[in-house]
Structures are given as C-alpha cells and as structure tokens.
Amino acid sequence: MTTTLKVINIGLQTFAESIRAQGVEVVDVDFRPSPYDAPRLSFTKTGIDIEAANAEAVRRIASGKAVLVGLGIARDVVPGMREKMILHAGPPIGWDRMCGPVRGAVIGACLYEGWAQSPDEASQLAASGALTFEPCHHHHAVGPMAGVVSPSMPVWIIENAAREANSRAFCTLNEGLGKVLRFGAFAPEVIAKLKWMETVLYPALDQAVRSIDGGIDIKNLIAQALYMGDECHNRNKAGTSLFLRTIAPALARTCDDRETIARIIAFIDSNDHFFLNLSMPAAKALTEPAEAIPGSTIVTTMARNGTDFGIRIAGMPGKWFTAPAGQVKGLYFPGFSEADANPDMGDSTITETAGFGGMAMAGAPAIVKFVGGVPQDAIDATLEMYDICASEHDTFLIPALNFRGAPLGIDVRRVVETGIAPRLNTGIAHKEPGIGQVGAGLLRAPMDCFVQAFEIVRNW
C-alpha cells in the first residue's frame, strides 16, 4: 500500500527545499521562536488567575459603549485641565526632550492661546518652566500625532455608560492633513483655522450633537465603517461619511446660517480623517474600564510622543513602560524622504488597543498602499495579530475573514512568548518644527516595552 507523503515544515527553509527536491509536497509554516526568556505564566505568585483576569479585561472592552454626547472647551470639561497647561501625546516628556513636531505644536498652541506673539517668544516660554506639560492619557484624553491640547481648544466628549465604566473621554477636532498643528505646523493659516474651529465649527457641532436624542453611537459607526473598508485609524473615509450623514440633518435643524452649514459640511467632507478624532476617544472610553484589574496582562494604552513609545497594562494602570519610538516605513509626499521623517508619534494607537486600527487591517486592504504592498499583506497582518491577543471582538467584525471578530486584547505575555510585536499604521511628521505632515506608513511597536512589562509581571 502506498500513500502520498505530505510534509509540514516549521521554521528553516532549507529543510523544505531538500524535501521538495525529492518531489514531496511541502507546506511551509512561517515560525520563529521567541528570542526572549518567556515562561508561560498562568497564575501570579499571589495566586491570581491571569487568564481569568484577562478574560474580564477584554469583556469590559468589548461590552463597553462609546456615545458622542457633545463638545466642550478643554478648560471646562477635561478633568484636571488648567491655565498654562498643555497636554501632549504619548508618555510623559518635558520640553528638553520633545521632538521637533511636538515642539512645533506647543509653539502653535502658545500662539493660539495668545501666551506668545511669535514662535521665538513661544519657544522661550515653553523652555522657561512656566508651562505644565502632561500626557493626554493622564486626563482621560487622547491626541493624534503631537496630540497637543491647550485650554481654549474645543474637544469631543465621548461617554461610556456601561456598568463598569460610567466615564468620559476627550479629543480635539481633526484639522485635516498636511500643514496642521498636530503635525507640528504653526503658520498663521494654521492658527486661523484653529480659531475658526473654536468660534464657528465647535458651537454649531455641539448644538447639533446635543439635539440628537441619546447622542451618536460612535462604536456602532466604527463597526459599520469596518464593513466598508476602513480600519478607523489611518483610513477613515467610511467613518467620516457615516458621521456626516448622521450630523447633517441635525446641523440643518439647529443652525440658522445656511452658509455656516455649507462650510461645515464642506470642511468635514474634504477631510477623510475627520472621524479619527472620534474613533480615538471612543477607543479610550472603551479601554479605560479594563484598567486596575489585578493580575491582568492586557495592554490598555499604547502611545508615542515622537521620542518615546510607551505602554500601560491593566494590572498596573499608572505605570509606563517605554522604549525609543520607531521609524516608520512608508510613502512620502513629493519632495520629502525618510531623511525628513520624525520617529513615530501620537495617541492614535489606542485604536489597536481597542481592537481595530492595525488589528483590523484585513478589512482595509487600501492601507498597504502606504508601503507598496498588496491586499494579502493586510490579511496576513491581522492573522498574525490573533497570535498575541487574548480574544476576538464580538462587534468589530472583518468581512474579508468571513466576519471573524478583530483581534482584541494585546497580551504582554503572548507578545514576549511569540516575539511578535503589534503592527501599527500611522502618519509621518517632518522632524523639524513648523513643516507638518510628509507621509504615512507602517511599523511595529518596539519589543522593549513589552519585555519590561513582562519582567514585572513574572514577579507579581
């Protein structure tokens, strides 16, 4: 009796090549052992069941609600916000270590607030110690790229009314792409746009949102957008369109000035990333209830400030684990190259933490155009992320994977055990202040953050 031999080859390609040379069918499995000493941890030394703690963390994230209830001025609604305070993306950092685009955004905020009359004066003020710099994440807020929030800026207010949450998250409004504050630009036209957003866009949107009974379910819009080719981090075309369809009737009913309505609709319509500043605080509102669960190794925060990349985990919500921010592999606007690029920055990786963004790239194949890839690359990226996550989302589903739930709950243990770091997609800012966006691309989170956290976890 003869049977056809089929071989599964795990690891070294040379084995597969020698078997194929003998006419045997070989299936290759791309596997590399983790280079880190990572014993499987099931219980803490104090007897806490880590798997059970993680199951509770992802349950809270997945079952949360994220509803837009209105807007407000940062000084009035963001907890702990005060005068001469500037919030920024990523882990804590001072002026002396800030990268160029974050410094540029701080300069712009000083000009916008009227604290300084020129960029040089703003730089001197920032270096003098007269300003307080704190992470957005320390104030239930998030900020894309530089993430700068100053007291007069309008912010979205997202509520998570789930039983374990009853909390709010905040984010500024998206200015668009290119030469904008979040990418470190501070030219007069940048400040003028911010003032228009404060005096015209904000009050009109606030009135419209508050007129909608029950607010706007942003979690539901994210789920719909994932069906339509977005991953709601670097691709927000569908999310922005869905939001515009939702808000337009309310704008028409609550705003008496037809020209203002037309300008607002045109502004949102021309800015495909407008929804990003809604998906981010939604993700923040969804992940916060998972914090402070004893024994949980689920990542609740990933954030970068252009100098450092930091993570926080559910079992130690106040502790940052940091490593140098990575360089983005991407495509650049004409006239710019990798030599112009600042390292990775922004709080927008909260989307990956909440189970979309880079976790859902399989549903947004257009993302891989950032690096000249093909749709299969996006599918492969999501499939790999299942290996480092504790669960799958029951609401954020991916049509390309037969409506499988997106990977949810990045587990520090699994990251270190497999040696697989989370995949991210992001914009690229020029390394010098004042210039703005120069491209977009993909990268992985630095492993050192996760290794540091694992070393603490193994001694719990």
Features:
4-stranded antiparallel beta sheet; 17 strands; 460 residues; 22% strand; alpha+beta; globular; single chain; 14 helices
Described by the principal axes of the CA atoms, the overall outline is globular
Low-confidence stretches: none
Strand portion, in percent?
Answer: 15-25%
Helix/strand structural class: alpha+beta
Number of strands: 17
Q: Helical amount among residues, as a percent range? A: 25-40%
Largest sheet: 4 strands, antiparallel
Q: Terminal Cα separation, in Å?
A: 57 Å
Please give the order of strands in the largest beta sheet.
Answer: 7-6-3-8
Q: pLDDT average, as an integer?
A: 93
Using only C-alpha atoms, the radius of gyration works out to 23 Å
Structure annotation, total helices: 14
Structure description:
The protein has 460 residues and is an alpha+beta fold. Helix content is 34%, strand content 22%. The protein contains 14 helices and 17 strands. The protein has helices spanning 13-20, 50-63, 74-77, 100-113, 119-127, 188-210, 218-227, 237-254, 258-269, 276-287, 350-353, 375-385, 412-418, 447-457, and strands at residues 6-10, 25-29, 67-73, 85-88, 132-135, 154-160, 167-172, 216-217, 299-305, 308-313, 316-324, 329-332, 345-346, 389-398, 404-410, 423-429, 437-444. The strands form six sheets. It has a four-stranded antiparallel beta sheet. A four-stranded antiparallel beta sheet has the order 11-10-9-13. A three-stranded antiparallel beta sheet has the order 12-17-16, with no helix packed on it. Helix 8 runs antiparallel to helix 9 (258-269). The radius of gyration is 23 Å and the shape is globular. The model has no long low-confidence stretch (mean pLDDT 93).
